[in-house]
Design brief:
Blueprint lengths: L21 E5 L6 H8 L26 H8 L4 E4 L3 H4 L6 H13 L3 H14 L16 H13 L5 E5 L7 H15 L5 E6 L2 H7 L2 E6 L2 E7 H5 L7 H8 L34 H5 L14
Parallel strand pairs: 1-4, 1-5, 2-3, 3-4
Antiparallel strand pairs: 5-6
Helix pairs in contact: 4-5, 5-6
């Protein structure tokens, strides 16, 4: 809600994620990607409303679960989270080592004698340097805070991992190492990964499926091989995202996304689309055969 106005941040999203696979959710800032992740773990503001269902493989509906269930049996244990703003999720008055050791103790039941080694192993998985384990969050760069948050998220080996911009603030070598670790955590171990990212190169490296979100809706859903290769994206916005990459046309998508509380009547992308016509501007397209576009 914005004041007394109802804002639909995410609408008509229908996704399925199998064990051992990664779905990359991509799109510009403000399109609703992080709202979706927060909704799954019950982390939305108190005045937010949710509808529909989000079921784990064991049948638990995350959207219907109460706070006690989410806190005691879901977060970290059945669903892990790499947050978009890691510094805000790290305890400011405790060292990274103590936070990792607490996570290991709570999520794995490890005894005191093995906590130090287990915490260091978790840090190593996320390429977090051992020399910084005894530092506090405010002593870390943004990239180090990101790696610390990733290490915490991997501790519980949750069957489902939500990674919200896990490569933010990392140089390319660390991006590839982080992505490879996430791949090992999911593909190699039979876990599922929902990766929310602006980094299409990272998505291409790990994703099995790509979902493109625009103005709170999925506008394209495709196998990663087809999306990044041939035949390529079918929605003009998805094509624009790829064309904006330096290794491709390096041409940004013109214009800016609309406010979620003030969407146009028809296709939300129509004001930015060179191919839009009167029908596009008057009628909102449904997601049909993996694409929501009248002209696809």
């Amino acid at each position: 809600m914005r004041g007394r106005r109802h804002v639909e941040a995410v609408t008509d999203v229908n996704l399925r994620l199998a064990p051992g696979t990664c779905l990359a959710l991509v799109g510009e800032s403000g399109c609703g990607k992080s709202v979706l992740a927060s909704a799954l773990l019950g982390l939305l503001p108190e005045n937010a409303e949710t509808a529909g269902s989000a079921r784990l493989a064991d049948g638990l509906d995350l959207l219907a679960a109460d706070e006690r269930t989410l806190a005691r049996t879901v977060r970290g244990r059945r669903v892990g989270l790499v947050p978009q703003s890691p510094a805000a999720h790290l305890t400011p008055v405790r060292t990274i080592r103590s936070q990792l050791e607490e996570a290991v103790r709570e999520l794995t039941g490890a005894r005191r004698a093995g906590l130090r080694a287990a915490g260091e192993a978790a840090a190593e998985r996320a390429a977090f340097p051992a020399t910084h384990l005894d530092r506090h969050p405010h002593e870390l760069s943004g990239g180090l805070a990101q790696r610390a948050a990733t290490a915490l998220a991997l501790v519980g080996d949750a069957p489902l991992l939500l990674a919200d911009e896990p490569t933010t603030g990392l140089d390319r070598d660390l991006v590839e190492r982080t992505v490879d670790e996430l791949r090992a955590h999911t593909h190699d171990a039979g876990r599922a990964l929902l990766m929310i990212t602006h980094d299409l190169a990272a998505a291409e490296r790990i994703a099995d499926t790509v979902a493109v979100m625009y103005a709170g809706r999925i506008v394209e859903l495709a196998p990663a091989a087809a999306f990044f290769g041939r035949p390529g994206p079918r929605h003009p916005y998805a094509r624009g995202l790829l064309d904006a990459l330096p290794e491709r046309a390096f041409t940004p998508v013109p214009g800016a996304p609309p406010e979620l509380g003030n969407l146009p009547a028809g296709c939300a992308f129509a004001p930015r689309c060179a191919a839009a016509d009167a029908h596009c501007r008057a009628h909102r397209p449904a997601l049909t055969e993996g694409v929501a576009c009248h002209r696809a």
